Predict the 3D structure of the following.
Amino acid sequence: MNNSVHFGFNTDCDNIIHENINAEFHKIELDELKPSTRYYYKVISDEIESDVYMFHTSFEENESIKFITYGDTRGVWDNWRNAAIVAQAIEKEQAYFALHTGDFVKNGLINSQWVDFFSISNFTHNCTIYPVLGNHENCPGHQFDIHWKGRAGPGHSGEFLGRARVGRHSYYDTR
């Protein structure tokens, strides 16, 4: 029940925020972060400590940024080999954020496929990912909630630069 986020401008992560709630999902908000800044963070939950990861805060208006758009990472067919190659290339780019256009996994109802997706590269912990559900996520409801709403990483809040983020997979009929 002793949960905390350690964060800061370097890997020492000198700032600490605690949450002492017994729950399946935890949410700790980091207030007063500086814009256009790289922060480092780690999470400690029930005496288990994560590696140190990083994130960028929202950028200033008219600032040049780097972002990635990609999708269809269903890596089951080759044991996630090609998806890992793409994720590692994205990680090298150090983008502010990534827009995933859907089809993260082959079957969104199989928990192990989500675990595999988030395990293929540190990129999935070091970059804010804006998800769009594809047809392979099978409208997973609970599985999607587990792996996205419960993400420890920053930037999964539903707003970006004060505008609601909206994504739609082109597979679905929008009539």
Summary: The CA atoms of residues 34 and 92 lie 24 Å apart. The chain is about 20% helix and 25% strand. The helical segments are 81-93, 111-119, 123-126, 142-149.
